[in-house]
Specification:
There is one protein chain. The chain contains 8 helices and 7 strands; from the N terminus they run αβαβαβααβαβαββα. The strands form 2 sheets. A 5-stranded parallel sheet has the order 3-2-1-4-5, with helices on both faces. Strand 6 and strand 7 form a beta hairpin.
């Protein structure tokens, strides 16, 4: 996108305060002149991610003051009614395991579809045209609503139903977790990598036990993906990636 269009256009980042959404927020701030964030309180068992989102935003502008003028407000939307329907390991006291459908019990049916619908409605009112999310179908837990085909279909539906020209952008879609670490390093160097390690939260169990790759239980699928990506990135010499 040309620099003049970056300055004139705006983006809304679906922001949980995790590794992926923090990297996406940095990517958006590097690409757009005005960036807002939206988080969703859907009754997840561990509110630590909601606190992480606020903490990461604060630290971003402290460590990267050149992004301060581009970062707009954070919106938190209450989706408890939706969360009560999901019945997943993220919203109820249930083991994380594979179900008879071949999907992890951490899968919340339709979560990204609902998130994008609410995000689009908010973006419409805020005059923002890009919806940016950390969905990925390379290193992921197998959720069908993380696939690019799903994002393309959702983009078409939102634009038809709202008479808008939204773009659903997924900077991490084809990256491994190691490449996601490399992208963070390319966007903000070691300070951004350190921020992700110390302040972001990805663990499904809400555990804040420190590790070299960040805080977490070290056993859930989210921790496993993050730790393996960290190990692969370090083993390859900690390269940087730009896009």
């Amino acid at each position: 996108m040309p620099d003049d269009q970056k300055t004139a256009s705006g983006a809304l980042v679906l922001f949980s305060g995790g590794q992926d959404s923090t990297t996406c927020l940095a990517w958006a701030l590097d690409h757009y002149g005005h960036v807002e964030t939206v988080g969703f309180d859907y009754g997840q068992r561990h509110g630590v991610e909601l606190a992480a989102a606020e903490r990461v935003r604060r630290q971003l502008v402290v460590r990267f003051p050149h992004w301060d003028a581009r970062l707009g407000p954070h919106h938190r939307l209450d989706l408890h009614g939706f969360g009560a329907i999901g019945g997943s390991a993220l919203t109820t006291d249930r083991a994380i395991e594979m179900t008879e459908r071949g999907l992890p019990s951490s899968f919340v049916p339709g979560r990204n579809l609902v998130f994008l619908t609410y995000a689009a409605a908010l973006a419409d009112r805020r005059g923002l045209t890009a919806l940016i999310g950390g969905m990925c179908e390379t290193d992921f837990s197998g959720y069908p609503d993380c696939r690019r085909d799903t994002m393309d279909a959702m983009q078409t539906a939102l634009n038809l139903g709202m008479e808008r020209d939204f773009r659903i952008e997924t900077p991490l879609m084809w990256l491994t977790k190691a490449q996601t670490w490399a992208l963070a390093a390319g966007l903000g160097g070691e300070p951004l990598v350190e921020l992700i390690v110390t302040d972001s939260h990805t663990c499904y169990q809400g555990d804040r036990t420190p590790h070299d790759w960040g805080a977490g239980c070290g056993e859930c699928p989210a921790c496993d993906l993050r730790a393996k990506g960290w190990g692969e990135w370090n083993a390859s010499g900690r390269p940087t990636l730009t896009q």
